[in-house]
Write a structure and sequence with these properties.
- There is one protein chain.
- The chain is mostly helical.
- The protein folds into two domains: about 1-130, Malonyl-Coenzyme A Acyl Carrier Protein, domain 2; about 190-220, no CATH class.
- The protein is built from eight helices and four strands; from the N terminus they run αββααβαβαααα.
- It has helices at about 5-10, 40-50, 55-60, 75-90, 110-120, 130, 195, 210-220; strands spanning about 25, 30, 65-70, 100.
- The strands form two sheets. Strands 1-2 form a two-stranded antiparallel ribbon. Strands 3-4 form a two-stranded parallel ribbon.
- The model has no long low-confidence stretch (mean pLDDT about 85).
Length: about 220
């Protein structure tokens, strides 16, 4: 990097700096940045000095920052940050962090951007939706809650039949679901023998002879 430092210093000396209005962690010191970040010398040192990435992530964790958004063509640093935080937490509350990339090949760019943007929104980050939609003819539904709609379940709890005491004391008739009922019908009018001979009769016989007597009465 040495050959480019002179030209780099000339460029950064022409920049007008301002004190940060939000917290910025310096990769040069591994701490929250102060006034030193507004000097050309800081950026010269940043070129040549090692990056204190692990210390910077620890500072974010100490200040309770839980959403990590990487702006770049590919999420490289998110994996490193996850490794650092999980090793510190040793598995405890490691799921409390959100690692969001701006782009993630081979995912479509817009799909990934919208997914990360939606995640930021539902976790309370204020999004400039007017600016986001200024180039598109659409209308956003405002004032929707950032949390999922309340879910209430009323499913019957499953219970096992094993170990249950059966209190049934009598056997259930297998024909319990229907009942035979006899109804009195008017006497069938007598018809001529010619009519009876031209018809086919089906007689249900029984062992007591009633069916046979019925047959004889028709034959006579």
């Amino acid at each position: 990097m040495e050959p480019m430092l002179e030209e780099f210093e000339r460029v950064v000396s022409q920049i007008k700096y301002a004190t940060p209005r939000i917290d910025i962690v310096s990769n040069l010191t591994g701490e929250l940045a102060g006034e030193e970040i507004t000097t050309p010398q800081y950026w010269l040192d940043h070129v040549r000095q090692p990056v204190k990435f692990a210390s910077s992530i620890e500072v974010l964790e100490q200040h309770n920052y839980q959403i990590l958004l990487e702006i770049g063509a590919k999420p490289t640093l998110l994996g490193m940050a996850r490794t650092i935080l999980e090793s510190e937490k040793q598995g405890q509350n490691s799921n409390a962090y959100f690692y969001l990339p701006s782009l993630r090949p081979p995912q479509e760019d817009w799909q990934q951007i919208l997914t990360s943007l939606a995640t930021l929104s539902i976790h309370g980050i204020k999004i400039d939706w007017v600016g986001f939609d200024k180039d598109y003819r659409r209308k956003r539904i405002w004032n929707l809650p950032t949390y999922p709609f309340q879910r209430q379940r009323y499913w019957i709890k499953e219970t096992s039949l094993l170990g249950l005491e059966i209190k049934q004391t009598q056997r259930i008739d297998r024909d319990w679901f229907y009942q035979v009922e006899w109804k009195v019908q008017p006497k069938i009018k007598d018809s001529s023998s010619s009519d009876r001979n031209s018809e086919t009769w089906l007689i249900f016989a029984d062992k007591e002879g009633k069916g046979e007597r019925s047959q004889n009465s028709y034959n006579n």
